[in-house]
Amino acid sequence: LNHENLSDYVVFENEENLRIALARGKGVFILTAHFGNWELMSAAVTLHFGRAAAVIVRPIDYAPLDRLVSGLRARFGTEVIAKQGAMRRIISALREQKMIGILLDQNVDWYEGVFTPFMGRWACTNKGLALMAVRTGAPVVPVFSVRENDGRHRIIFEKEVPLVIGDKTTEVEENTILFTQVIESFVRRYPDQWFWFHRRWKTRNFCTLT
């Protein structure tokens, strides 16, 4: 993958939404999911925008595979930030005006997240993105990769998510719900492109959605 053959693999839609957010000079959080070809998306966006990026991950349990995947990400300019204890590095990466990718569609334990409605059921969702976005003021831009019939991937840049700011007791939950709604909208539009194999609803909330 390089500048010369990039258009053979991807097409960009509404990229101005990311450019507007980057122009604010605060770095950008990329909200996405295990959807389409998310690894190709990361490499393509970094290459196309000429801007360093980072992704927050839980290291793969099998160390040799983790090293291989991390090396491939680094090859295209994406820094890998381990999820555990990531806050300090995230703050400095934003100061460097990096794009920071967060895949927000996996289950977490109850003490790491908040329960949000997702596909008609409660899903425990990591609250870290909401906490960091409110704290830093960095914009949150949803970006998703959709596989097309011609074999290429359409990378869609949504408008910045308007954050709920004010009530400290509810803003983290409300913003996490907003982020989850964005992911759900893509899953409903392209259900075949979401990686369904993760146990998204593993942590249970026994309240009933109304």
Describe this structure in words.
By secondary structure, the chain is of the alpha/beta class. The protein has one domain (6-193). The protein is built from seven helices and nine strands. A hairpin with a 2-residue loop joins strand 6 and strand 7. The radius of gyration is 17 Å and the shape is globular.
Keywords:
two-stranded antiparallel sheet, alpha/beta, 35% helix, globular, 210 residues, seven-stranded mixed β-sheet
Overall geometric form? globular
> What is the terminal separation in angstroms?
47 Å
> What is the share of helical residues?
25-40%
Mean pLDDT over the full residue set: 93
The H-and-E topology, N to C, reads as: HEHEHEHEHEEEHEEH
Cα-atom Rg, whole angstroms?
17 Å
Strand content: 15-25%
For the largest beta-sheet, the strand count, sense and barrel status come to: 7 strands, mixed
Strand order of the largest sheet: 1-9-8-2-5-3-4
Number of domains: 1
Ranges where pLDDT stays below 50 over 5 or more residues in a row are none
Count of individual helical segments: 7
Which structural class matches the secondary elements?
alpha/beta
Count of DSSP strands: 9
At a glance:
With 210 residues, this protein is α/β, with parallel strands linked by helices.
